[in-house]
Write a structure and sequence with these properties.
Shape: globular
Number of strands: 12
Order of helices and strands: HHHHHHEHEHEEEHEEHEEHEEE
Structural class: alpha+beta
Oligomer: single chain
Number of helices: 11
Strand order of the largest sheet: 3-4-2-1-12-11
CATH topology of the largest domain: Deoxyribonuclease I, Chain A
Helix content: 25-40%
CATH architecture of the largest domain: 4-Layer Sandwich
Length: 313
C-alpha cells in the first residue's frame, strides 16, 4: 500500500527529486505492485484484492501501452487511404547510430514527406545526394551539428545561436502540396542510466539530469514562442527520455505527443533489440490529426524508427 501511494504521487506530480523512480516504465511498477499484492492475498484477502485492482487501474491510467496495443488490434489502412493526398503528411524520425548512412536508407520504403534525422552522418553532401536520389522531384535539406531535416518540397533553415544549434535544427517548410509548417528536429542530451535506487548517487544523478534536460526544453519553447501562432509546428527526434518524463511538461501547453493520440502497437524505440523506452517521439501543434503512429525495427541503428501519419485539419 505504501508503494502504491508513493509511486502514485511520483507519477502525478513528477518532482525532480523522484526522477530516479519515474525513470522506470510505468508498467514495471504496476507489475511489481500487482505481484506483491497477489502474494499478500495469502494474508489479507480483501485488502490485497483491492490493491491488485488499484495497480491495474494505475497501469491503465498512466501507462500508454494498453491503449496503443488495443489500437494495434483494430488498426486498418482504410482511414489513411481515404484522406486526400494533399491533406496527408508522413513524418519519419530516426537516430542514425553515429552517422550510419545505411540506417538513413531504411527510411525509403515509407516514402515520407518529412524526415527527422539525429546523430547525422558527418558530411552534409551525403545526405543531400541521398535525398536527391530517393526523393524524386523537389527536395530540400536542413543540416545541423547533430540533427537534420529532409523534406519533399522547399525549406528555409533558421539560424540558431549556441547552444541551441548543438542539439536542434529548425526550418520553415513548404511541402509539394503547398502546405507550410515549421519543423524542428532535436536530439537532447544523453540519458543517465542508473537503476540502483538504493544508492544516493543514483537519485542525485537523475535529479541533475532532469534539471539539465528541462533547460533544453526551455530553449525549445523559446523557439516555439518565436513562431507565429498561424504556423503549425512539427517537433520530433531523439528526446533521450520517455514521453512521460516530467521535463516534457514544458512542451504540453504548445504541442502534443502524436503517439498518445494515435499510437499503434508497441511504440518503444530504445534499444532496437529490446525496446523498453519510447525516447524517439514526434509532437505537433494544433492543426494536425494523428491518424497512426508506430515504431519499426531497424537493421543499422540502435534505435527503432518512428513513423507518424498526420492529417492536416
Amino acid at each position: 500500500m505504501a508503494l502504491f501511494v508513493g509511486i502514485l504521487i511520483c507519477y502525478l506530480f513528477k518532482p525532480d527529486t523522484c526522477a530516479a523512480l519515474t525513470f522506470f516504465p510505468v508498467w514495471a511498477w504496476g507489475f511489481l505492485g500487482a505481484v506483491l499484492s497477489l502474494v499478500g492475498l495469502l494474508y489479507k484477502k480483501c485488502i490485497h484484492i483491492t490493491l491488485v485492482i488499484s495497480w491495474l487501474v494505475f497501469i491503465l491510467i498512466f501507462a500508454e501501452e494498453p491503449q496503443s496495443l488495443f489500437r494495434g488490434l483494430c488498426a486498418s489502412s482504410s482511414k489513411w487511404e481515404s484522406i486526400p493526398k494533399n491533406k496527408r503528411i508522413t513524418v519519419v524520425s530516426l537516430n542514425c547510430a553515429g552517422g550510419n548512412m545505411e540506417a538513413v536508407r531504411e527510411i525509403v520504403p515509407y516514402t515520407p514527406d518529412i524526415v527527422l534525422l539525429q546523430e547525422v552522418p558527418p558530411r552534409k553532401e551525403d545526405i543531400e545526394s541521398f535525398a536527391e536520389a530517393v526523393f524524386e522531384g523537389n527536395v530540400a535539406v536542413a543540416y545541423g551539428l547533430d540533427a537534420a531535416i529532409i523534406v519533399r518540397g522547399e525549406l528555409e533553415e533558421t539560424s540558431l545561436p549556441k547552444p541551441k544549434n548543438i542539439f536542434m535544427t529548425q526550418a520553415r517548410v513548404r511541402l509539394e502540396s503547398g502546405y507550410e509548417t515549421e519543423v524542428i528536429c532535436i536530439r537532447l542530451k544523453p540519458l543517465v542510466i542508473d537503476t540502483n535506487i538504493l544508492s544516493r548517487k543514483c537519485w542525485v544523478s537523475h535529479k541533475k539530469d532532469r534539471k539539465s534536460r528541462r533547460k533544453q526544453i526551455g530553449q525549445i519553447v523559446e523557439q516555439i514562442n518565436s513562431i507565429s501562432d498561424e504556423i503549425p509546428i512539427i517537433l520530433g527526434g531523439d528526446f533521450n527520455v520517455t514521453a512521460k518524463d516530467g521535463c516534457l511538461r514544458g512542451l504540453q501547453p504548445y504541442l502534443s505527443d502524436t503517439f498518445i493520440k494515435g499510437g499503434v502497437g508497441w511504440g518503444h524505440t530504445a534499444l532496437n533489440s529490446v525496446p523498453l523506452f519510447r525516447v524517439d517521439q514526434i509532437w505537433t501543434s494544433s492543426g494536425f490529426k494523428s491518424i497512426s503512429v508506430f515504431a519499426r525495427k531497424t537493421e543499422h541503428s540502435d534505435h527503432r524508427m518512428v513513423i507518424s501519419y498526420l492529417e492536416v485539419e
